[in-house]
Amino acid sequence: MRFMILVKATKDSEAGVMPTPQLLEDMGRFNQELMAAGIMLDGGGLQASSKGARVTFSGADRKVTRGPFSNAADLVAGYWIWKLNSLDEAIAWVKKCPNPMLETSDIEIRQLFEESDFQ
Description:
- The chain is of the alpha+beta class.
- It has one domain (2-113): Dimeric alpha+beta barrel (Alpha-Beta Plaits), CATH 3.30.70.
- The protein has helices at 11-14, 21-36, 87-96; strands at 2-8, 40-45, 53-58, 61-66, 76-83, 107-111.
- A hairpin with a 2-residue loop joins strand 3 (53-58) and strand 4.
- 25% of the residues lie in helices and 32% in strands.
- The strands form two sheets. Strands 2-5-1-6 form a four-stranded antiparallel β-sheet, covered by helices on one side. It has a two-stranded antiparallel ribbon with strand order 3-4.
């Protein structure tokens, strides 16, 4: 099964504060460990919401709202796609991850739908 691992944004990430060289090194090591284990399918960091937009759908209407967006804790700063056998295995790997932010942060784990889920 595949999981999307969502690194939640913080005030600092939304303000464009870049990770320290040490954090980049630690995350690089963690990503190498994920790849060596055959778990990591994809991953990346996202620019602050000030460089993004939202499109709201209401029937045939479309409303565009440009960032920045409020409530950093509801935003995503980065992601991985992992292939694992269970949610518990995903949790175990996330617990090994260095704190991805320079402050208290959250990582959310969500299972992706597979084609078989719709049959």
